[in-house]
Write a structure and sequence with these properties.
By secondary structure, this protein is mainly alpha-helical. The chain has five helices and no strands. Helix 1 packs across helix 2 and helix 4 runs antiparallel to helix 5.
């Protein structure tokens, strides 16, 4: 079961990343990000919200190692932390930010706790 959920989490990571990678304008709109006077924002979406997650998910599947899955959890923990700090300081749309943060926190918790014991 751990392996199955790990693979699903990695595939979700790739899927999330594909939105930013292939549809950066749609992703930016969904995240309430507005374009400025250049296309640098689209480049940033493809890189940090897209390619980073796509390649990380692929690498985790390729490595197929509990520590790799645990480190993917650490990545999601960082995202969840940023999201919850934003909830406290930035007043983003509550439901959207809390939903994204909850998904990130759930993935982080699973990936870290299910895999860290397997690395010893």
């Amino acid at each position: 079961m751990i392996t199955t959920v790990n693979v699903i989490a990695a595939l979700l990571t790739i899927g999330f990343g594909l939105f930013g990678f292939l549809a950066p304008a749609w992703t930016a709109t969904s995240l309430d990000l507005a374009p400025t006077n250049s296309n640098m924002g689209l480049s940033e979406m493809r890189a940090s919200v897209g390619g980073l997650f796509v390649v990380t998910g692929i690498a985790v599947l390729w490595l197929n190692n509990p520590m790799a899955y645990a480190m993917l959890g650490v990545v999601y923990a960082g995202a969840a932390l940023g999201r919850f700090v934003s909830l406290a300081l930035d007043n983003p749309p509550l439901v959207k930010a809390a939903t994204f943060g909850g998904i990130e926190l759930a993935l982080a918790a699973w990936l870290i706790f299910a895999n860290i014991s397997k690395t010893s």
